[in-house]
Write a structure and sequence with these properties.
The protein is an all-alpha fold and 408 residues long. The chain is 79% helix and 0% strand. The chain contains 19 helices and no strands. The longest helix has 31 residues.
């Protein structure tokens, strides 16, 4: 993997180092995951029920999706660097609001505001596409999104332990600290990568139809959204399954909830290593197959009575592997359909992915009860993996129509 010319770490006159992009890509998933093991504790604190408290995940994802659709065009107009810096400042202020929220309604309002952290995830991808051609971008995004993988593996473990020792608010203090770190790292290292579009903001938004009328963009975006749907369903349902069905304490639940990230790191590494060799479409097909086969195996094992938390969370490692092979390649593909709209495409495809994730997370929380056990979640994860597979086939069919062997 080559770096852009003249790249120097902690030099804001050159493009950002990959380490900076990894930190920025991790901000949103850390904010999404760190407090999940403390959800039962927070439910008791605010005197509400789990279904209401679980909205802190679904609403976060929903607002995240809406913001992604806005952030892309704004960054194409004003640049990646200033949008990231302002976004991080707003994230820190929203996190302070979460700590001092007197009611669950106020907490959820500030929780939605926290979703502005997505600027790091959206614009780290866009910056990669600014600097690299399509196939190489897929490889680099594979490495960058390891921040998205490492965060859900480490932060629930940390969050569960910190929440058990110091209470749930301590997790939000950690988020403030990480936000401050990302702010100063961006100031010191993130040189602007976007070329000025020369268009008004209104003209930027009017270019959405150029993407929305592209079957290839929809294919890549839906494949990414549906494949990651298994992961977002997991985020919505795993805290309930772990605490209620398996009876795990917050600290242990946080440890087990990080299981998918182990596979995701491996999948990202495989994407970084092989995407340029075998093509992004083949990597996506393989990732969807891995996830789908895993869920079929999980259904079979549970039906045979092997329904322990070791089986459930252990097989989530394989789900993470499939997502790690699918998501970086789908992201790179959607950004490569119209390279001159990289920021807009990153935001719009991210909005599609997270909008679906918000719906699936909320649905998982609504369907799971003590009577149903984990079966609704397992079926949801299987169905989204299968639909993701067919979305990749749509991309392949369209590229054959256009005579393309790879994203142009």
């Amino acid at each position: 993997m080559s770096q852009p010319k003249r790249l120097r770490f902690l030099d804001s006159s050159t493009p950002p180092h990959i380490a900076t992009l990894i930190f920025l890509s991790a901000l949103a998933p850390i904010a999404m995951n760190i407090f999940l093991p403390s959800l039962p504790q927070m439910t008791a604190y605010f005197g509400t029920d789990y279904g209401i408290m679980q909205l802190s995940v679904a609403l976060y994802l929903l607002v995240n999706a809406i913001l992604q659709a806005l952030i892309g065009p704004v960054s194409d107009k004003y640049g990646r660097r200033p949008v990231i810096l302002w976004g991080i400042v707003l994230f820190i202020l929203a996190t302070i609001g979460c700590i001092f929220a007197p009611t669950v309604e106020v907490f959820l309002a500030f929780r939605m505001a926290q979703a502005v952290a997505t600027v790091g995830m959206v614009l780290s991808r866009a910056a990669v596409r600014d600097m690299y051609p399509a196939d190489q971008a897929a490889s680099v995004i594979g490495y960058v999104t390891m921040g998205f993988a490492i965060a859900p593996m480490i932060t629930p473990v940390i969050g569960g332990a910190v929440g058990e020792m110091f209470g749930w608010k301590a997790n939000f203090l950690l988020l403030i600290g990480f936000g401050i770190l990302c702010y100063f790292l961006t100031r010191a290292d993130f040189g602007e990568t976007a070329r000025s579009s020369g268009k008004t903001l209104g003209q930027q938004f009017r270019e959405y139809p150029e993407l929305l009328t592209s079957p290839r963009f929809w294919g890549y975006s839906l494949a990414t959204a549906l494949s990651s749907g298994a992961f977002f369903s997991y985020l919505g349902g795993a805290p309930f399954i772990g605490a209620t069905y398996f009876g795990l304490e917050p600290g242990l639940l946080g440890l087990f909830m990080g299981a998918p990230a182990i596979g995701y790191i491996v999948g990202n590494f495989l994407s970084g290593t092989f995407s340029m060799r075998i093509g992004i479409n083949n990597m996506m097909i393989a990732g969807c197959i891995v996830t789908g086969v895993t869920m079929i195996l999980l259904l079979a094992l549970f039906s045979l009575g092997f329904d322990s938390h070791f089986v459930f969370f252990g097989l989530m490692i394989s789900v993470g592997l499939g997502n790690g092979m699918t998501m970086p390649n789908g992201m790179a593909g959607s950004l490569s359909v119209r390279p001159h709209l990289a920021g807009t495409a990153s935001g719009l495809s991210g909005a599609i992915m997270l909008g679906g994730g918000a719906a699936l997370s909320a649905l998982a929380g609504a369907l799971l009860t003590e009577k149903t056990g984990p079966y609704p979640l397992i079926w949801m994860m299987l169905i989204t993996a299968v639909l993701g597979f067919f979305s990749v086939l749509v991309v392949i069919f369209r590229e054959r129509q256009l005579g393309l062997s790879s994203p142009q």
